[in-house]
Design goal:
The chain is of the alpha+beta class and 151 residues long. It has five helices and eight strands, in the order ββββαββββαααα. The protein has a domain of 86 residues. The strands form four sheets. A two-stranded antiparallel ribbon has the order 1-2. Strands 3-4 form a two-stranded antiparallel sheet. Helix 1 packs parallel to helix 5 and helix 3 packs across helix 4.
Length: 151
């Protein structure tokens, strides 16, 4: 899988299996996470350098923001679900164990309890991610990230 660069250069990404999780999946997560964090920086502060945490509301630098999941588990059924992953400060996401209740309140207020419960059910949905599907996800979010950067 590669991408065309100006001047006809083609970048080729190589992936290898590393333990349980393939490097293709790790690369997909890397680009998805970068996209989510930049999306929410721009959405909440209008700047690519700072983001307002979805759970505590603090404005923190980009490098102190995670792509936090509202629903724990990070199973393949919800891993790349943009509607439940938002910029969350590291203190809330890692130190506060995701601040799940605050996160839930934000999403239920926006989408409703029924919507949220469906997302919780999706967590249990088996959705095997192949290396090829992960490569496609990585390419999609890498391109989306670069498109946001140009805004």
């Amino acid at each position: 899988m590669g991408s065309n660069k100006p001047g006809g250069t083609v970048l080729v990404y190589k992936y290898k299996r590393t333990g349980k999780e393939s490097s293709a999946k790790k690369t997909a997560w890397k680009w998805f996470s970068k996209y989510i964090r930049l999306r929410d920086c721009l959405k909440t502060t209008g700047s690519a350098d700072y983001c307002k945490c979805i759970t505590c509301g603090k404005v923190v630098p980009y490098d102190q923001i995670d792509a936090g999941h509202a629903i724990p588990g990070r199973t393949d059924g919800i891993l790349f679900d943009e509607s439940i992953v938002f910029g969350q400060c590291k203190l809330c996401n890692q130190g506060g164990d995701g601040e799940k209740q605050a996160f839930k309140m934000v999403l239920v207020a926006e989408h409703g309890e029924e919507w949220y419960e469906q997302k919780v059910k999706n967590r249990r949905t088996a959705m095997p991610l192949t290396d090829e599907s992960c490569r496609l996800i990585a390419t999609h979010y890498r391109m989306a990230f670069h498109a946001l950067e140009k805004q």
